[in-house]
Amino acid sequence: MKLYDFDGMFDEKLADYLKKNADKHKESEGEDIIPALYKKFGDTYIKAVGDTPNGFYAKMSDGELIKALSTHLKQGVPVSEFLCAAIESRNAVELLLPLLDGSEEERDYAINLIGASEQALDKYFEMLLDKNSSEDLKNRCVDYIKENADKVLNRAVENYEKGLECEYMLEIMSRCKVRSDKVFEILLKEFRSDPENLPMHASYLAAYGDERALEYLLDKIDEDGISFIEYQELKFAIEALGGEYTKERDFSNDPYFELIKSGGGDIFGGFKS
Question: How far apart are CA 235 and CA 243, in angstroms?
Fold first, then answer.
């Protein structure tokens, strides 16, 4: 398969353009016009290729595009946005799925191109539960799983009850739109029983959107021992659920509050210090 480094070609043309037009563009302006020039380059005829970058990839089948991506990565040839855009324009998820078992680069590109497709949910869960997966990879998988939260609710609950990646499962459950007493009870139980992760669990209640959580949030924010960070997240959760907390609190002895205040000017004027 013939590969072309379209990004390298663009860089050469860009350097030549900026050199010839140095008097017309300041450095900052030059940076601003690069995206427009790159887009225009996609429809520029290249004699050595016999086509434009966009035209070159438009002629390929779905399978050829995926093979081109894999070959680019294996041979260390830069992958252009034109190739990625061509793949994204096709319904090629099934062809991309095997790349999730490939090299790290293949997997990263595949995840970005597949996105939140339902066809990839099984694989995303598999990677999420894999002990060898990095936290970064797990977070990326969860971000896309969350977009299908209602479709995978039962699976998330089952994994949680088995003690598998509980925090991630809670995050997924919190994004469900269909209300469930069981999910609410799980999120509330974690909020009330895990003081070490109070801000995170408050954010889950806020994301879930069940107003029944308000009374528990209001009780917690009124406690004397909460930190400034916990206060902020609790107040956000309360307001997200349509509530309000206006009691003045003193965080002058909170080291995090003092750290932010020292560099935050008057943005904390509403807090006593």
Answer: 9
Q: What is the pTM of this model?
A: 0.84
CA distance 96 to 74: 15
- The separation between CA 152 and the C-alpha centre of its own chain, rounded to angstroms, equals 18
Closest Cα to residue 166, out of 140, 134, 138, 192? 138
Both tokens of 242, joined, read 């349509």
How far is the C-alpha of 268 from the C-alpha of 37, rounded, in Å?
44
DSSP state of 46: B
- Measure Cα distances from 39 to 10, 14, 43, 81, 143 in Å: 10, 12, 7, 9, 29
> Please, are residues 109 and 98 in contact by the beta-carbon 8 Å criterion?
no
Q: Residue 69 corresponds to which tokens in the numbers above? A: 């991506």
Query: Which of the 8 DSSP states describes residue 38?
Result: H
φ/ψ (deg, to 5) at 32? -70, -35
Structure tokens at 88: 């994204």
Average pLDDT per 10 consecutive residues for the chain, totaling 273 residues: 95 88 63 88 97 98 98 97 98 97 95 97 97 95 97 98 98 96 98 95 98 97 92 96 93 79 50 41
Distance (Å, whole) CA 102 – CA 118? 20
Q: Which two tokens stand for residue 109?
A: 């590109």
